[in-house]
Specification:
globular, Porin
Length: about 260
């Protein structure tokens, strides 16, 4: 198992520009690269060369990214004594903007780290182990490559919430937040799809996360996604990502319920 860059074929040139060669392994249900992967590489590039910790990321998936070379352009909007705010663009081989993210990094030396509060969100008590989870099945006639890559499986759920376990396919210290991006995005599909029951196509055009911890205690993350509402064809979901019982990230996402 290689590091993050080896997994996603990433490199930085002499001008500081990041590129990632993304192949079909990371494709989702709609034929393009999984949005969580695009968010993860955006976060990795934004953190490059900075000693500051990731505090948040807000991604907008403007158009699908097809397998190929992704160019990452990072623009520092402001760098203060405590926070760095950056805009990060993912651009495809045809020079089209596919994803735009806003990243916040924080200087830990400026924080009152002695102040703590135990997790106010905890994982469901009835989750099964990763090895006992229900492995996602490949749909007939339209395979989803990320199922084979990240091995998502359902490990619990009730009502409008589903908990999805997702494998971390690289090994590199300090990249727990990147792993949370992928786990969170993959988790959005099941609760919305269950509510829609095949009546609509359900891509999610955005993902917003706030990072709570950098501790990765297992080689997979559990993400609980709860459908909050569907109104006028737009669904809103709330996400919590855990490593064992430790809260790693919280977030929200929208889903567009499109006519078939």
């Amino acid at each position: 198992m290689g590091g993050f860059l080896q997994t996603f074929n990433g490199r930085r040139d002499n001008d500081g520009i990041w590129t990632f060669d993304l192949d079909e392994r990371c494709n989702g249900a709609f034929g393009g690269t999984n949005g969580g992967v695009l968010t993860a590489i955006s976060l990795y590039a934004a953190r490059d060369g900075s000693a500051r910790r990731a505090a948040s990321i807000d991604s907008r998936y403007l158009r699908g990214f097809r397998p190929g070379t992704a160019r990452i352009e990072v623009t520092t909007l402001n760098e203060g004594r405590t926070l760095t705010i950056a805009s990060v663009d993912v651009i495809d081989a045809n020079d089209r903007l596919c994803t735009r993210s806003t990243v916040t990094l924080v200087d830990e030396a400026a924080l009152a780290t002695a102040i703590t509060l135990a997790n106010q969100i905890t994982p469901p008590d009835d989750l099964c182990d990763f090895d006992d989870g229900n492995i996602w099945r490949q749909p007939k006639g339209m395979p989803i490559p990320l199922i084979d890559t990240f091995e998502p499986r359902t490990v619990g759920g009730s009502g409008n919430a589903t908990t999805t376990a997702t494998k971390v396919i690289w090994q590199e210290p300090g990249t727990t937040s990147e792993a949370a991006c992928i786990a969170a995005d993959i988790s959005v599909g099941p609760p919305v799809a269950r509510a829609v029951r095949g009546a609509a196509s359900t891509p999610n055009p955005d993902l917003s996360l706030r990072f709570c911890s950098t501790h990765l205690r297992t080689r997979h993350l559990n993400a609980t996604c709860e459908l909050q509402a569907i109104a006028g064809g737009l669904a809103a979901t709330r996400i919590a990502v855990f490593s064992e019982r430790e809260l790693i990230a919280i977030g929200i996402s929208s889903t567009t319920c499109l006519l078939k």
